[in-house]
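User: I'm writing a tutorial on reading structure tokens. Could you give me a worked example: one chain, its sequence, then its tokens, then a sentence or two explaining what the tokens reveal?
Assistant: Sure. Here is the example chain.
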Amino acid sequence: TLDYLESRPEADVERVGMLGLSMGGMEALLMGALDERVDVVVSIAGQLDWQEIFAVGSWKTIFAGLDLRHRLVRLGASAGEAQEAFRQEYPDLDVVDATKIAPLLATKPLLLVVGDRDPYIPATAARNTYIAAQASYREQQTVNRLVFWQVAGASHSFTKPMQQRALAWFDQWL
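And here are its predicted structure tokens:
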């Protein structure tokens, strides 16, 4: 995607922001961490903190279509048992854990947004992602580039206030 963007004459590739919602929010974190061309990141409801997601039961919603999920629910698996079963079935699951990825963005402005009624990404998972990133941002002396915003009354969505805040974030940093 960024390679294509670089080929476009109307694109200013010196100022690239990435925004994603849900898994796109996780992808925005990954791209921001892996590609130096991404300057600013906004992750909306994309903070996959597996420890928290399994602890609060959101995994049942996230993985609703998987046979493994159905089997574990039928067996009455605990959060720990379910998490271990998923790690065995999907050994690279932790590669997409926002609490491990967000600290890698410490030189880049990062806005983490989640609704307090999100059935997929609990606000605690987003807050844990923010907390995990804080030490790296402090070490880089860029703590002013890291913001966590929990939106009251919002679900797994990209509301008008979220859109406005994301655009303001890009205006501020790009």
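What the tokens reveal: The CA atoms of residues 19 and 42 lie 5 Å apart. The chain has a mean pLDDT of 97.
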